[in-house]
Amino acid sequence: TIKDTLICNNFDETKAKNSFKNNYIKITLKKDFYTVIADLNDNSYEKLKSKKINRLDLKTIDYSNSFKYLNVYEDYIGNTIPFINDSSSSFNYENSYLIFLSDKRITDLNYNMTYPENQDDYKWLDSFNLNGKVKPLNLKKSDDPINFGSIINNELNSESLNKFGLELKKIRLDKNMFPGNYKLNLSQNNSIYNIKIVCDDLPKSLTEPIYASEIMYYILNDTEFKNITSGSKQKVFTNILNYWKSQDPTPNTSYNEKMFSYFNRVDEAFVNYQTINEKDGAKTERGKIYILYGKPERIERKLGNKVNQEVWKYEKLKKEFTFETNPSGIYILKAIK
Prior knowledge:
Blueprint: H1 11-15, E1 33-41, E2 47-57, E3 69-74, E4 80-84, E5 88-90, E6 97-103, E7 110-114, E8 129-133, E9 135-136, E10 146-147, E11 155-156, H2 158-163, E12 166-172, E13 180-186, E14 191-198, H3 209-214, H4 222-228, H5 233-245, H6 257-272, H7 285-293, E15 298-303, E16 308-314, E17 319-325, E18 331-336
Parallel strand pairs: 5-14
Antiparallel strand pairs: 1-2, 3-4, 6-12, 7-8, 7-13, 9-12, 10-11, 13-14, 15-16, 16-17, 17-18
C-alpha cells in the first residue's frame, strides 16, 4: 500500500479540469493491475468524498514517448551510450554519444557542433564549439539486437546492418556540454541538424531563477545574496551557476552534483512540508533544516492535546533539532543540540 497527499490552495483547484500539479507525486511501479483510491478532505482532514478506480492496468500505458532516449547500450569498452530519440540526449552522462545510421561507404565524415545565441529558456554558457571526426560504432555479432522503436521498425544487429550496407556511427559528446539547443553540421552534405541536450533530472526550483536565488538565502551572507539576486532573470541564472561552479566537486564536467543535490532537496521540501497555512514547504523551518542537512536519520514524534513535537536526529553529524507547533499548527524550531 502506497499513500501520499496533494494539497490544493482553494476549492477552484479541486474542480479545475485543465489545471495540473506536475511531478508533485512520483511513484515507480512494475507493470501490473492496481487499485487507486482518491480521498477528498477539507482543511481539517475530514473526508468529504472518496473515488475508487478498481482497475488501473499499467500494461495499457504507452511509454514510447516518455523516454528521451530509446535504449542504453554498453559497448565493449564500457562506455554508456544513450540512443537518441527526437535528437535529444542527456548531458549528465560521463560518456555520451549521438548515434545515427549511415551508409557504410562514407568513411571520411567530420562534424562541428555550436551553441547558438537563441535558446528556449536560459543560457547555461556563452558559447561552445566542438569539432571532430565521426567514428563507426562497432557491434559484435554476439551483441544483443538494438531496438530503435518508432524511428526504425526493426531490431538491428551487425548482420542486419551489413545486409543493407549500413553502419552505426557515433559522435562523442563533450563532458562540458550544458543543456540547450545545439547546431550540428556534417561535412558530407553541409547540412545543419538541431540537437537538444536535455537535463532529465533538472530540479523544478532551478527552472525559476528568481525563486532559486531567493532559496539560496540559507547558505549565503548578505553581500553574496544581494549580488546573486541582482539583475535580469538571465543574469540571476548566470550568477547562480557561477556560485555553484566554485562549489563543484567535479569541476571538469558540466554536471554539478552539489548544485543539483541542493535544489533537489528544495523541491522535496517544497512538497513534503507544505501545509494549508504554509504554501511553500521549502520556506518553512522544517524545510530549511531539510535543505541544509538532508533527511534526518531518525524522527521522534510526540502528539499532544495542544502541541505536537518532532525531534530530528542527525546522528552522523551529531545534531538534533526540535520543532513544536504553535497555535496555528505551524512547526517552529524550538531547540538545537
